[in-house]
Amino acid sequence: MQPEPEPAVEDVPSAGDAPRPPRFSRDLDWVFIGPHGLRAGWSILLFAGLYYLFREVVGTLFYAAGLIHDTPADSAPAVLVGELVPVLALIAAALVMVLIEDRRISSYNLAGPRRVPHFLSGLSVGFVTVSLLVGALDWGGWLRLAPAAVPAAQATCLGALWAIAFLLVSSLEEGLFRCYSLSTLARGINFWWALAAQAAMCLYLAFDPARQGASGVYLAAAIGFPPCLIVQQTLGARGAFWQAAWVTSTFFGFYHTSNNGENSIGIFAATCIGFIFCLSVSLTGSAWWAIGCHAAWDWAETFFYGTADSGFRAEGHLLSANPSGNPIYSGGADGPEGSLLVLAVIVLLLLALLSLYARNGATPPAN
Fold first, then answer.
1. Does the predicted TM-score (pTM) go above 0.85?
2. SS3 category, 312
């Protein structure tokens, strides 16, 4: 009599073995997860969705609380409250992304050494460079400066309100472009994705005639193409920061094309200044210099000299300025940023940054 065969032993995982995910799931992991966690593109899309969601929520709450009302849109209180809404939305979206990406809020280009000195340095450089631009326009007869009939006490109060308002403006725009977007794209973008982003922006502008100064974006995209291609060929993945700088700087100009009164020079100037701000992140290790410079630039234009600022003309300022002559030189409705002379001042801004920090070397911050 032959022995009965032993039953086959099934390949049952032991209690200590982790359950294996379905192969289909494992095959799709690379679409969403890269070497640094959630891929940069998905992070940007998720962040943008959260930002606009929180912006609607905070705006609704402000409106229900009576904080948003019929105050003139170009007054300091209106700008202050109006900018507080997206700033709070930005903070809320960033905090959610901190949890999702398992990062620190400071990792979004807010760490780095000597943050307060860098911020104060940016304030000084921003005010001085705008003063040089306004002075050149006045000297050439393209801008007429006059004192505004504002009492000293009122001017002090207005100056403080505008300072807070433009600190919020710079915090919002630098937070969007040089903090979250730059730090996120710098960990997961190459030349081809950057080129695709440039093409998408240019195509959008080509089919949206309501946007103003679109050729400034086209020019920025074209100028950035050769150096970023060289960076891709020579540095490969190590050049991701500069690809991200190209995208975020061009998008900074794209962002301003929705402003009334913009022109092509002003939009191109915005992209150039955006790139200088990216360079400042690389040289100083954080975005604090850019935040200070941005705030002082806008405050000097809007309140101190009373010029238009990217097409925006404010109510309540220390001096009064009106463009005169050819808009190519005066800037017209755009303000000093729309003048051809702004390109020379941008070079001076770049030289000021390099003279202060070039000894540090251009080393993108670790994210």
1. yes
2. strand
